Sequence to fold (204 residues):
Amino acid sequence: MADRAFSTFTDQVAERLRKGIAEGRWRGTLPGSKYLAGELGCSRWTVEEAVQRLTKEGLLVSPGAGHRRRIQLTKDLAPPSLRVGILLYERIEEKVDYIVDLQHRFLEAGHVVTVPSKTLLDLKMNVARISRLVGSTEADAWVIQAGSSEVLQWFAGQPAPALALAGRRRGGHRRHRTRQDSCGTNRRPAIDRTRSPANCDARA
Fold:
């Protein structure tokens, strides 16, 4: 009878860490063993054994005692980068905080950001003009700021994924999507707030 190859719990945890790193779940540095043990449902000892193994493989780099291990992706594990086009409502919006933050997040994730010279106002929300702009811009995905319902419907029908930030009613009045945080403060749209919880000042 042929021998079966059995994987240990450490093997399984090491593989889950490899997969998470390859998918971009953790970037820059790997969280501490206590956090990973809770997330993966295993002991800290098992996590530390798996981390040691990935360090020997060169996937992680130890900067010294008391510091988190740095992730060192090889070309075959690095997640693919995207060319992201951001179509603004008007040029002045390029300096708005949440647009700047969005661009930084894409760049930090290894993606390429393109902001076309023409805005939705320049194109007069005309779908035919927008179609020509999109066709002449090298982008794998789009972010549309304050598009009309017709514009957003057109993007929804395209093969490239698209994300809408806010929107506009038929009458042309701007409609911001905001949400209330636990402090009762309305915030502007942002991407993936769950990864960077807002710090709230105590108010009387």
